[in-house]
Amino acid sequence: MKSRIVVLVLGLLLFSSCIVKSIQPFYVKNEIKYDAALVGNWTDNKNGDWEVLSFEDEFKKENEEGVKLSAEDLKVYDSYKNGYFIKYTKKESEALFMGIPFKVNEHLFIDFAPFEYESDELNKLVGQHLLKTHSTAYVQHNEDKSITLKWLSEKAIGALFKQDRLRLKHEKIGLDEDLVLTASSEELHNFLKKFMASDFEDKWDSDDIYTLKPAHAKP
Fold first, then answer.
1. Helix axes 71-80, 55-62, angle to 10 degrees
2. Where are the alpha helices (DSSP H) in 13-137?
3. How far, in Å, CA of 137 to CA of 145, rounded?
4. Residue-wise pLDDT tens for the chain (219 aa)?
5. Which of 143, 170, 183, 192 is within CB 3.0–4.6 Å of 187 for a Cys-Cys bond?
């Protein structure tokens, strides 16, 4: 199913390059947990705008009732029906992500993956080198109805690797030697359980924390 929203590569670059990326999703299917409170329009503390839509609702809008769906569309629906379309906009650049909410014990996380991107300014050969990886953010509901997203930081995870306190399959790739986790989803989910239970300092990097407030909220 093609999205009606175009994702610009520039929009993808708005996120900090220091978040931890993974080849595989951070969630396992039996821990997916939809949270309706995330749906809506938000503004963040970094001058960005967010629109979070229910995947199921948008899927039904794009597919007329009574029309027979293809096997591919049914597979997509079954995989993402409890997820979100997440559009992030900053300085007129857009990025569209598929977001899957999931639980790690009592904690809520979202797995982010770029949904689709196009750009007339992007050389086709360069585009073929780009890999759509996953990232994950811890979701914290606040008393003032705002939401805090805390991305898994390469700074914190990299320190654990250097201290030999973490054994998880990973690679350093590219000229910038970005950290990319190559472990399975089951291994990543188990790692998040241990990560949340740990009490080491600097678990979250302030550069990778976003506080979202309802777009209609008064200052």
1. 160
2. 55-62, 71-80, 124-127
3. 18
4. 434 333 433 334 445 458 999 999 999 999 999 999 999 999 999 999 999 999 999 988 887 766 677 888 888 889 999 999 999 998 877 889 999 999 999 999 999 998 765 555 556 666 666 778 999 999 999 999 999 999 998 888 988 999 998 999 999 887 778 889 999 999 999 999 999 999 887 889 888 899 999 997 655
5. 183
Tell me, what DSSP letter sits at residue 200? -
- Evaluate if pTM is beyond 0.90: no
Sheet of strand 21-22: strand arrangement: 21-22, 178-181, 170-173
Residue-wise over 24-44: b if at least 16 C-beta within 10 A, else e? Answer: bbbbeeebbebbeebeeebbb
Structure tokens of 84? 């979100």
Q: Of all helices (H) and strands (E), which one includes residue 217?
A: none
DSSP 152: P
The domain ranges of the chain are: 9-214
Q: Beta-strand (E) ranges in the chain?
A: 21-22, 40-44, 49-54, 84-90, 93-104, 107-114, 135-141, 147-151, 170-173, 178-181, 209-214
